[in-house]
Amino acid sequence: MASQASYVFRALGKDPTVTKRLVLVGGIGHATSYIYDAVTRHPEYHVLAQEINGLPEARVLELILRRFFDVAVITSAGCQILIEDQSTNCGANAVETKALLERKGVKIGQSVVVVQDPTMCRRTVASFVKLYEDLPEIQRPTFVSCPIVAPTVKVVDGNLEYEELPESSGVRVEELWEKQRFYELLVGEVARLHDDVNGYGPNGKGFIGHVDVPEEVLKAAEILRSSLGVSR
């Protein structure tokens, strides 16, 4: 998460006109401890380890922004920075962000770029789309996901290891999730996106709209679950 945010902060530092508004999103939820761990392991941000404990995820990102990037440059072209620090899960990210914009009197733009963990991008976008589906079609924002990186693994001496990431991403392999956590996210997200009685779509909990999950993806998730002992 910190890696994706860093990419956005760098991009805005180079071109402050990229967006009119930057919303940092995330409260304290079941996965927040993983964010703390990621920051603690980060080659630069680890110096914040003692300060972030107990902070909402959005406040962790804000701290990184203000300590390591030039906020004055980022806001020089009028970019507004907003903080949503109450949401506790993916669906609530969308709900609380919408509520924040409404409280601030901000009309959502025609296009919204969602930067999220690559395993969660699809569901996050689906959550936002679901939230705005009651608007007339001409008024609905277009939500686009931008995961920054899409990690892949390879077999090295019988073990799965991350492949090197493109240098242009600015993200190092050591900044990625621990591999077991990565596998859990992959398997869990496929199950949540799958529109059956156990999923989050219309045939399940109804949190998001229907998402087509290819059969090969379902099979791959099942192989991952059974072969690596991933339960989520």
Give the name of the CATH architecture of the domain at 2-148.
3-Layer(aba) Sandwich
The SSE order reads HEHHHHEHEHEEEHH
Total DSSP E strands = 6
What spatial order of strands do you see in the largest sheet?
1-2
Can you describe this structure?
By secondary structure, the chain is an alpha/beta fold. It contains nine helices and six strands. The strands form three sheets. The chain has a two-stranded parallel ribbon with strand order 1-2. Helix 6 packs across helix 7 (121-131) and helix 8 packs across helix 9. The protein is globular, with a radius of gyration of 18 Å.
Task: Annotate the secondary structure layout.
Elements: H1 2-14, E1 21-25, H2 32-41, H3 49-52, H4 57-68, H5 71-74, E2 80-84, H6 90-103, E3 111-114, H7 121-131, E4 142-145, E5 153-156, E6 159-162, H8 179-193, H9 215-228
Parallel strand pairs: 1-2, 3-4
Antiparallel strand pairs: 5-6
Helix pairs in contact: 6-7, 8-9
List its traits.
single chain; 232 residues; alpha/beta; Rossmann fold; two-stranded parallel ribbon; two-stranded parallel sheet; 42% helix
